[in-house]
């Protein structure tokens, strides 16, 4: 969800999106650590391929989630909904 899509949401949709997109840092950190462990194991076992690529994509998704939440919070502040 980019900034244009966020600005086009109604107030009710924006509040719902912010509620559903709230990051949980402990769970995210656990999964990122687990995925990094998978990558390290695959490199040590010389198994390059999907075993290495899929965790990298998932790590990117976990790291992108807080950025979307920050954008939602900024839009909430603009509209004085917080």
Overall shape: it is: elongated
Q: Helical content, roughly?
A: over 70%
Count of DSSP H/I helices: 4
Order of helices and strands: HHHH
Distance between the termini: 20 Å
Total E-strand runs:
0
Description:
The protein has helices spanning 3-7, 11-20, 25-44, 50-78. The protein is mainly α and 82 residues long. The chain has a domain at 48-82. Helix 2 crosses helix 4 (50-78) and helix 3 (25-44) runs antiparallel to helix 4.
Keywords, separated by commas or semicolons:
mainly alpha, elongated, 82 residues
Topology:
Elements: H1 3-7, H2 11-20, H3 25-44, H4 50-78
Helix pairs in contact: 2-4, 3-4
In short:
With 82 residues, this protein is an all-alpha fold.
